């Protein structure tokens, strides 16, 4: 159930960016002119010692393998045996305090103002989560995946109001550099998104290749009636589809336009009844009831995008599981076509680089924006659902959608960043933010800074942003902010038990203390605590 307090707490709290940041003199550049991300004093300037101790304890707890692997079951058992109050007494001052801004207005406002004082912006992110899929039989369950509970259309309307409150808060406090995060599964039935995504995939397969010539009306209609019955309804659909193709070609002369790109949800449903054979396309089409729910979801998203455009706020649409993502991509493209005109990008889609299909999709969407004349907004991430995706692929017998090695994922991410930062829309210095580089990996951040330098992109005036999660990779965020880069923290908020799955996922991500990212951050914490101890003792 969505928190009612989440709406009220956003009435006045909101993100902003204030520069300069640190009260300390900035260190010199590192080797090769790169920023130094190993200066613990700069990274933790102004952070109370008690918070550093808490952070170290949280990271240590995340290193206890059985605790992380079975965290969800242990938490459920503790709630049954000890009760919610006792569990909250342990979790609230530790994991919750470290990874979440708070659950009431004063807590969120304090977190945002603390970031602003250090030159770092905040992206408000309602972090309620629920898991809708179990692990493969016999396997340990994956960390809870961020999919909202579906409790009816009223709950979706309540989530819309929460997101609208976040947009309004950003508009008041950060009208030029504000961001708000949106999760599509909060605004409609997750199972509907899965069905819709299947329909889009089957539409692309049905109309793929050379099956339907798109440049000659006669040849198009002849091929069309090989797929669909010859009737008045089918002839009308053929004419409407070809006219839509013509209109798309007129918007982008010389571009290759796919039939699947101009088939609406309603048209898919109508065509499924006209198929000569009852194949996968007919089975995947939404029913009339599902179509109405899809329209309601689109209305909520369109309303939020319209509000953001009117208030001068950017929205970031979070990526989700691969079986939801085709529908989310489809929605984002439609919203970007409508709202990413004129002044810049309002809507930003998220691209998960641990997926093998991401590079081609990123290039296809960017090319589409160039051809059609709208601003391409992107958030680049490695991804958050690896364990679930692989378990589901193994269980259902389809190809693993994830890169085979972590090195392949790193390469995909770095190539995506280089591609996005070299795009003319970024170099032109337009007013809208076009790219958010969301990474906790120091090497990737350094490579992004190298690309910026090579492309002549200024830290303060370019539309390139860097983002890390609250409670993670502070040495990256605050060093970037101190040097004038547009650095942001994703700032989750919500009541304790709403955000518990989010906390479990953060624990899992920080679980490998041998990884370079976590081990490096832990070493900086230990070093800063040791420095403060020596200073206190006068040694």
Automatic annotation (TrEMBL):
Cofactor names: FAD
UniProt GO cellular component terms: mitochondrion
Domain (Proline dehydrogenase): residue spans on this chain: 227-513
Enzyme class: oxidoreductase
EC number(s) given by UniProt: 1.5.5.2
Gene Ontology biological process: L-proline catabolic process to L-glutamate
Superkingdom in the source lineage: Eukaryota
Secretion signal span: none
Classification via InterPro entries: FAD-linked_oxidoreductase-like (IPR029041), Proline_DH_dom (IPR002872), Proline_oxidase (IPR015659)
Catalytic reactions on record: L-proline + a quinone = (S)-1-pyrroline-5-carboxylate + a quinol + H(+)
GO molecular-function term, one example from the UniProt record: proline dehydrogenase activity
UniProt KW keywords: FAD, Flavoprotein, Oxidoreductase, Proline metabolism
The keyword Cytoplasm appears for this protein: no
Assigned protein family: Belongs to the proline oxidase family.
Function: Converts proline to delta-1-pyrroline-5-carboxylate.
Protein name: Proline dehydrogenase
Lineage per the UniProt record: Eukaryota, Sar, Stramenopiles, Ochrophyta, Pelagophyceae
């Amino acid at each position: 159930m969505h928190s009612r307090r989440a709406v009220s707490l956003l009435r006045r709290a909101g993100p902003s960016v204030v520069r300069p940041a640190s009260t300390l003199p900035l260190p010199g550049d590192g080797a090769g002119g790169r920023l130094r991300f190993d200066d613990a004093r700069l990274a933790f300037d102004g952070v109370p010692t008690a918070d550093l101790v808490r952070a170290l304890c949280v990271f240590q707890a995340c290193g206890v393998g059985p605790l992380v692997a079975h965290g969800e079951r242990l938490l459920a058992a503790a709630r049954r045996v000890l009760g919610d109050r006792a569990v909250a007494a342990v979790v609230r001052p530790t994991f919750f305090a470290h990874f979440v801004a708070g659950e009431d207005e004063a807590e969120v406002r304090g977190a945002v103002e603390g970031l602003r004082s250090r030159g770092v912006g905040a992206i408000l992110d309602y972090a309620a989560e629920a898991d809708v899929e179990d692990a493969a039989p016999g396997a340990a369950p994956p960390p809870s995946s961020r999919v909202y509970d579906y409790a009816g259309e009223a709950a979706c309307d309540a989530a819309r109001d929460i997101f609208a409150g976040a947009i309004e808060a950003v508009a008041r406090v950060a009208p030029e550099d504000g961001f708000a995060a949106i999760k599509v599964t909060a605004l409609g039935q997750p199972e509907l998104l899965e069905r819709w995504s299947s329909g889009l995939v089957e539409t692309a397969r049905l109309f793929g290749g050379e099956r339907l010539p798109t440049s000659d009306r006669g040849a198009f209609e002849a091929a069309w009636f090989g797929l669909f019955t010859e009737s008045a309804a089918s002839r009308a659909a053929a004419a409407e589809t070809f006219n839509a193709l013509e209109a798309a070609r007129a918007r982008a002369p010389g571009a290759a336009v796919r039939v699947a790109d101009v088939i609406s949800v309603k048209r898919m449903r109508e065509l499924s009844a006209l198929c000569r054979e009852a194949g996968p396309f007919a089975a995947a089409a939404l029913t009339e009831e599902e179509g109405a729910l899809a329209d309601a979801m689109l209305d909520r998203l369109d309303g939020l995008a319209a509000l953001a455009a009117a208030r001068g706020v950017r929205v970031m649409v979070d990526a989700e599981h691969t079986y939801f993502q085709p529908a989310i991509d489809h929605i984002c493209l439609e919203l970007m076509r409508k709202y990413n005109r004129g002044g810049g990008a309002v809507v930003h889609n998220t691209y998960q680089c641990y997926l093998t299909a991401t590079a081609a999709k990123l290039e296809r969407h960017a090319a589409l924006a160039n051809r059609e004349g709208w601003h391409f907004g992107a958030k680049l991430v490695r991804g958050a659902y690896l364990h679930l995706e692989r378990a589901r692929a193994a269980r259902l017998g389809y190809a693993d959608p994830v890169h085979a090695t972590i090195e392949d994922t790193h390469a995909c991410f770095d190539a995506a960043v280089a591609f996005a930062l070299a795009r003319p829309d970024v170099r032109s210095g337009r007013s809208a933010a076009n790219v958010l580089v969301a990474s906790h990996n120091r090497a990737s951040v350094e490579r992004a800074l190298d690309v910026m330098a090579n492309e002549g992109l200024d830290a303060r005036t370019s539309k390139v942003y860097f983002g890390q999660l609250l409670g993670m990779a502070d040495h990256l965020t605050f060093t970037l902010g101190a040097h004038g880069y547009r650095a942001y923290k994703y700032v989750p908020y919500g009541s304790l038990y709403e955000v518990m799955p989010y906390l479990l996922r953060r624990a899992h991500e920080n679980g490998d203390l041998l990884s370079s990212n976590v081990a490096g951050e832990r070493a900086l914490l230990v070093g800063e605590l040791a420095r403060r101890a020596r200073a206190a003792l006068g040694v």
